[in-house]
Amino acid sequence: MDNLRKGFPVLKQYTYLNTAASGLLPEKVFEYRQDHDLDFLVSASILKEKQGEVLTEVRETVGGFFNCAPQRVALVPNFSYGFNTLLEGLEKPKKALLIKNDYPSINWPVESRNFECFYTEIDAYLEDNIRTALKAHQPDFFAFSIVQYINGVKLSIDFLKELKKEFPDTIFIADGTQFLGTEIFDFDSTGIDVVISSSYKWLNGGYGNGFILFNENIVGKIHPKHLGFGSLQGKYKAHEGNFIGKFEPGHQDTLNHGSLSVALKLLRDTGMENIEAQVNKLKDFAKEKFSELGLLEDFVVKRNEHSSIYNIKGDHELFKSLRKANIIISQRGEGIRVSFHFFNTVEEVEKLLDALKTRR
Questions:
Q1: Dihedral of the CA atoms 206, 207, 209, 213 (nearest 10)?
Q2: Within a domain: residue 23?
Q3: Is residue 25 part of a domain?
Q4: Could you list the residue range(s) of the whole structural domain that residue 88 is in?
Q5: Strand ranges (E), the chain
Q6: What is the pLDDT of residue 115?
Q7: How many domains does the chain have?
Q8: Is the predicted pLDDT of residue 29 greater than 60, yes or no?
Q9: What CATH number has the domain bearing residue 221?
Q10: How far apart are CA 198 and CA 290, in angstroms?
């Protein structure tokens, strides 16, 4: 267990149960960032000349980590940039299916454009609700979070695989920001058309970097309009009209994208099988204890599939009490959101439980 916690100094100061808000910055990523900017300080354009090599390595690292060919990986500064670029590439009008109260950065951009929007509810029967809505409305695209940001409700990858087979003509656009980094994810095996993710949460990649994974069949269904000199620069984009290049029109940030590469290699070296096992252990233990204390919504208790994010009953006074005890959590929705990653421990969950019992 100590090996999983190495390289995260913040864990010595706090009981950090807040990865759903912001992941930790690993020491190795911090060291890379220092070295990178020192190189820039002393070499200026000489460092810039290596940009193509750096970004090629990042693209290949991302593709290898999630099993997506590097020529189908776009590097973007965050989820919202990538998602808005993608939406602008969809011919209008289109019918869209959304999940009610999904992350605003998903629903707001769709609602702000000339799309006909339909919604499905989050409850114990979310999967049935989605299937029913797809049958009833036959949307052109379905945009959704794999894991819901407020309460951690999760759509299983197996369900999404089956659903895509049932509705092959609907474009599936998934936000992986609250999911990627918690378990092994083989993109090409899912059939999902597009996965977009920021990297500052469960991947511990810091801010200013993200990526898009594209199914090989998506080209021709989306026509992004962004274009710039950077659209044609690099090993995988060096021809006019390149698809991923239209998501990368300007100069790319080698500091931030390079940080993602280092973070992914750290996860790889830790072992995603070890990370997944630890996350599962913590989320199952927490769900059992939270359920016993009556802290979860009834439908969350009933669901078999869930993430390591929970929204427990509590007010602002409880939030302040936990923060005073150096337990880092967030207020979301009508409760308090807690989240567990691989560097957390059962002892930390128990510390939270003790604090909650004291307040009852």
A1: 80
A2: no
A3: no
A4: 31-269
A5: 15-16, 73-76, 94-99, 115-120, 141-145, 171-175, 194-198, 210-214, 309-312, 327-328, 330-332, 335-339
A6: 96
A7: 2
A8: yes
A9: 3.40.640.10
A10: 29
